Amino acid sequence: MTVASATSLLASAHWRMLLHKLRFGLRENRLLSVTVGSFLVLYGVAAYFLVARGLEFVAKLPLVGPLLTERMVFLLFFFFFVMLVISNATITGMGLFRRKDMEWQVALPLPPRSLVLWKTLEGMLLASWGLLVLSAPILLALARIYEADARFMLAVVPALLSLVTIAANVSTWLLIALVRWSKRWMWKPVVAVAVLLLVRTLPVWNSSFDKLNSGDLSASLNQILRHTEICMHPLLPSSWVAETIQAAGRGMVERTVFFNLVLLAYALMSIVITTRIAGAHFYPAWNRIMSAAPGTDKAAENPRFRARPGRVTEWLRRMLALDRASFALLVKEVRTFVREPVQWGQTAIIFGLLLMYSMNLRKLGYDLQSPFWITVVSHLNLLVCCLALSTLTTRFIYPQFSLEGQRLWILGLSPLPLHRVLALKLRLSASVLALLMIALVVVSGVSLALPWKRILFFSAAILMLSYGLTSLALSLGALVPNFRESNPARIVSGFGGTVCLIASFVYIVCGMALLVIPSWQNLKQDAVALVGHDGRIELVALGGLAVLTVVFGGLPYFFAKKRTKNLEYLRHL
Question: How far are the Cα atoms of 145, 330, 398, 484, 563 from residue 412, in angstroms, in the given order?
Fold first, then answer.
């Protein structure tokens, strides 16, 4: 059996499975279908008008409008390409080395190249549909800016599909190389180099932004463009897509066809390289994963070490006022998180970017002496933190109960009842996230030179929002579990995950509307001095947020706790 026939066989089998799931989902979950469809249509319309208005504003800037529009296109697809590589590597890695059905598929009389090629295509489909949904209104807005017709989309869509294919295959190369040759000691120098680069780059940012705020337009523009030159490198596939968009928008047919053919040639070549790498290195990488055993320290081999917890552990347990069973569950949760690079890696990236953003808020180039901009930037900063927090809770907190899987009966027989397990998960997750978010809010408040009264106001708000969003995600995950699925991405994409995402968004919007009431007078652009905030109005706003937290976080937690107390809950296993 050839590689092409084996890959088509796997694709046809999974296509039939997908059609069966779609028919079942449309028949049994009509509410989910209507909700998701309505949300996507609403997003498409809103994104199209917002992006179109923003691009029109930039394009109409005198002298620099067309240049900035062109650079924004390059920057956009560069980040799209990087995001595709990371998401494809995550999904393909879970499909190749983490799924239990791969043990069965590897034993089949199929060439390993076909298995790797199909998993690459599967990961591409799962990771790229979101990009297509995100980019569709952006491409329509660009067509409006260039005043192009339907031929613009016919020229750009093939280039975007080729970009997706290249990103999926590049992620497979990196994944196989990482599994095949990586060592544990390699992580330490990588982290050290990353920290050194971050420390080395911070003074450069500061000096650049000082020039940016100096009032010299040409110098400021030069600084902005110089920091985005990497996105226009001629060897990047994202640059070829941006060139295709520019050429199609300006009616340059020959240049559009040329870059489309370049992308197509590299996409096909990447598939050939993937099959070659899979034939030579997939089995050694698979064998290394299957034969790997966790290392043990010499101290851990001592029976007394296993029988007694350490002094630090015992001190921490007493400080948290937990019994041994509850503390053991918390230790299990922490170790599970540490052993999942997908979770702590994405969490570290998100919080690292938020920290960098918070530290440089005062370097944005706005007149932060103006009460209007101080109010807008501080509230938008809180909104960004909340949206990032909702992303983490929906992605990682919601599937926690479902990921216990069919082993949940073990927890049911433990000294801890399931409702106690739910409470401990909430206590751990919400406390850690609340501490991190409060630290970000304090850093951003100091960076903006806000009064400490306002910093405490925002800290109290993010504290309630952290517990509310975590409780909402964890409770919905317990109310609508999926114990038959081991992939958290598929668990989140179900009905409960969709409801959690929408409910989190509504909760954040309503909460931000309440929190902006005490600062309403400072939102006038003609305001000269910052109007003092009435403490009573701030307390009323926080009280309203507390009521919202009870509604969106407390009520779902009450129903989830009530349901987990019933032993009928385990019949879903």
Answer: 59, 16, 20, 17, 13
Task: Count Cβ atoms below 10 Å from residue 233 Cβ, excluding itself.
Answer: 11
Whether the CB-CB separation of 300 and 306 falls below 8 Å is answered with yes
> CA geometry: angle at 439 spanning 437 and 441, to 5°?
70
Give 427-473 as a DSSP string. HHHHHHHHHHHHHHHHHHHHHTT--HHHHHHHHHHHHHHHHHHHHHH
Q: At what angle do helices 253-291 and 65-97 cross, to 10 degrees?
A: 30
Instruction: Please state, in angstroms and rounded to a whole number, the distance separating the CA atoms of residues 184 and 190.
Output: 11
Q: Residue ranges of the alpha helices (H) in 308-396?
A: 311-319, 324-338, 341-359, 371-392
pTM, two decimal places: 0.71
Please classify residue 449 by burial: count the beta carbons closer than 10 Å to its beta carbon, then call 0-12 exposed, 13-18 middle and 19+ buried. exposed
Number of Cβ within a 10 Å radius of residue 262: 16
pLDDT exceeds 60 at position 297: no
Radius of gyration of the chain (CA): 26
The residue with tokens 């989910």 is 32
Span 210-233, average pLDDT = 65
The helix (H) or strand (E) run that includes residue 235 is: none
Contact assessment for residue 48 and residue 158, using Cβ atoms and an 8 Å cutoff: no
Q: Chain centroid to CA 385: how far? A: 13
Lowest mean pLDDT among 68-77, 103-112, 404-413: 404-413
Residue 386 CB contacts under 8 Å (≥ 6 apart), including other chains: 462, 465, 469, 508, 511, 512
Tokens of 45: 């319309």
